[in-house]
Amino acid sequence: MTLDKAKRGQSLKISSIPSEMVRAQAIRFGIAEGAVVVCEQVIPAGPVIIRRNKQEIAIGRGLAENIQVEFY
Amino acid sequence: MHCHQLGININIPEGARKIVLAGNPNVGKSVFFNAFTGLYVDVSNYPGTTLEISHGLYKKDVVIDTPGVYGISSFNDEERIARDIILSADVVINIVDAVHLERDLFLTQQIIDTGVPTVVALNMVDEAQRRGIKIDIDLLSDLLGVPVVPTVATRKVGLEQLENTIERARRGNIDFHLDERLKSMVDRVGSQGEALLILESDPIVAKRHGLEPGNDREEIYLARRERVNDIIGHVVSEVSQGASFATRLGRWMINPLTGIPILALALWAMYELIGVFIAGDVVEITEEVIMQGMYEPYIKGLVGRFVSEGSVLGTILIGEFGLLTMTVTYLLGLLLPLVIGFYLSLSAFEDSGYLPRIATLADRVMNFLGLNGRAVIPIILGFGCVTMATITTRMLGSERERRIATFLLALTIPCSAQMAVIASLLVGVGGSYALLYAVAILTLLAFAGTVLNRLMAGQSTPLLIDLPPLRLPMLENVVKKTTTKSIGFLKEAAPLFALGSLIISTLQVTGLLVALQNLLSPLTVGWLNLPKEAAQAFIMGFVRRDFGAAGLSNMELTAIQTVIGLVVITIFVPCIASTLVIFKERGRSEGAFLWLTSLTTAFVVGGILAQVYAAFQNIWALYILCAIVLLVAAVIGRLPGGPKPLTPVASGTGRDHCG
């Protein structure tokens, strides 16, 4: 499924991130493909907030719709 | 030597080393910088950008600050500058947030991979401790291969030890495979740092050596990420703790139900400080009592002894728009206090970690305008001062977004000075008219944003933003930032202001001011249904838009005339300071286009309102008009086949400003 479908509290494994540039930035934040993250918050029709250990990042909905994740 | 690498003009004394401070955003770098250099700090402008780099002396060495970045490459101006300064460093002091090792150590390892001698300052260890994070510092130092010093910079803990450790800075451990590859590249380009960036597909560094950038950024990044995660797995042990108040507050700030009231509260506090206290009480003293009451009579008397006030030179120097009178009064008496209040709030917002949360909250709304949530920051700042807000559009991820944001700012956002005048005028016209003003401006904002998003080629970048932990901003740091930025503003604005008053004085002396007024009258009377004198207000509006709005307040206007006049003056050309900043930021042709578009739009929108009102004699017709325009905007936004913004399909996303 895609990240925008995630619900708060779910543990997810990132299986693919589109666009090289976004991947590079995400790796710097600690969120590479294959990383396991927790969905912290979903803003209705807005960004999805994911967390890996202490690192939280907000991902716009348009991008979240293109990030493939699986339950972990 | 690769002297071109540094890029900025810094005087390096004979034998001095370049000690470079590097780190992620908001790790307390500036506190270290201040501790090392004390009061004597120079600020240089980095060529081709408007970013300022501070540097100062520490003993015999030069300490150079860098912009906060998550990694060094060519993704944006900040990274390019940080990259060049780090590559030219003799020693790097890498400041790391102990609470955020996952994020921060990526940059640390990248710096180590460049082969420059490094010391790590593990900052905010007290906070890490409070959060139950235990870090084995000796092991971290062993694994990285560089000295690690625990610090709490805000309380000056560990700074002395850090100073003593600079001498022990050394090249850290590099992944075996990467090291092998680096060695063969170093043979070709001479420097390990440049070799690394070429392997990491940095187009600019590769070009310097006439090489094609490598294709292995992702591979190297992934390996580095894995290495960093592995190090963290070894050195960090966590005692789990419940969500702290700061964590919960952070969540509330993002959730629309709680986030919108919190934002409203924060903006209200900012308005109370800048709009009420400073624009009212403080400016009353600085502008009216000090500048107009004491300074202006003094300077008029002084200059008047040599030049008559009525002469051409007198008018230019000490007349109504004089270089020594209006320019100085406006700059020091009115603008400077506002700017200081503004930067105080902004620095506090920045240091607390609130800004990225506002961006997250607003992301969805901003998407309609072809922007991502980050753009809400310049827009909010625009209500303070459009000129400064225009400068902050630099933080946006692509040229396209910067263009849209600058356009919307120039077109629709009234600055605080103008707002004050507008508000006082709207009070007099009653609720439905006052609301009409707001609805008309918001309609234009939505319409212009949608159309720009539609017409402009390319794609905007999606929101991908780090949410740092919330922290109480440190007063000392906020004050220091405010001082530096306010001085920078004065330096930038003073010549612009002088130029503006020179132009207006010249118009006045040559009689062109009156001529222009007559020239404009068919437009004002025939098209906008305003009295002839309104032209005067628009001419004033060229200098400053609040001037223009104030000009309207002295006129006998009906309620609808007031609203139309205000709509026109709000959309009207940006003030001289803004215009010049727009030209500087966006280039001449785009600046001129924006300026003329503002001017045309102002009269077109005002005229349509006036003509529709004249036809129906009913203000509800104007509300319906706004609703229709919004509907059209919604349809335009949803038409198939246009650019699909904010979804990263092409690999070039966010890269179009690399040139």
Quick recap:
The complex is a heterodimer of chains A (72) and B (659). Chain A has 72 residues and is an alpha+beta fold.
Tally of domains of chain B: 2
Q: CATH top level of chain A? A: Mainly Beta
User: Can you list the strand order of the major beta sheet of chain B?
Assistant: 2-3-4-1-5-6-8
Radius of gyration of chain B: 28 Å
The tally of helices of chain A reads 2
* Domain module tally of chain A: 1
Strand coverage percent of chain B: 5-15%
Poorly predicted runs of chain B are 1-5, 643-659
CATH superfamily of chain A: Ferrous iron transport protein A (FeoA)
Structural class of chain B: alpha/beta
- List how many beta strands of chain B DSSP finds: 10
Order of neighbouring strands in the sheet with most strands of chain A: 4-3-2-1-5
Which two chains have the most extensive interface, and how many residues on each? A-B, 36 and 53 residues
> Which architecture of chain A per CATH?
Roll
In percent, how much strand structure appears in the residues of chain A?
35-45%
* Oligomeric state, counting identical vs distinct chains: heterodimer
Largest sheet of chain B: 7 strands, mixed
What is the CATH fold-level name of chain A? SH3 type barrels
Written description of the protein model:
The complex is a heterodimer of chains A (72) and B (659). Helix content of chain A is 18%, strand content 38%. Chain A contains two helices and five strands, in the order βαβββαβ. Chain A has a single domain, classed as SH3 type barrels. Chain A is globular. Chain B has 659 residues and is α/β, with parallel strands linked by helices. Chain B folds into two domains: 3-238, P-loop containing nucleotide triphosphate hydrolases (Rossmann fold, 3-Layer(aba) Sandwich); 256-638, no CATH class. In chain B, 63% of the residues lie in helices and 7% in strands. In chain B, the strands form two sheets. A seven-stranded mixed sheet of chain B has the order 2-3-4-1-5-6-8, with helices on both faces. Chain B is globular, with a radius of gyration of 28 Å. Residues 1-5 and 643-659 of chain B have low confidence and may be disordered. At the A-B interface, helix 1, strand 4 and helix 2 of A face helix 3, helix 10, helix 11, helix 15 and strand 10 of B. Strand 4 of chain A pairs antiparallel with strand 10 (464-467) of chain B, so a sheet runs across the interface.
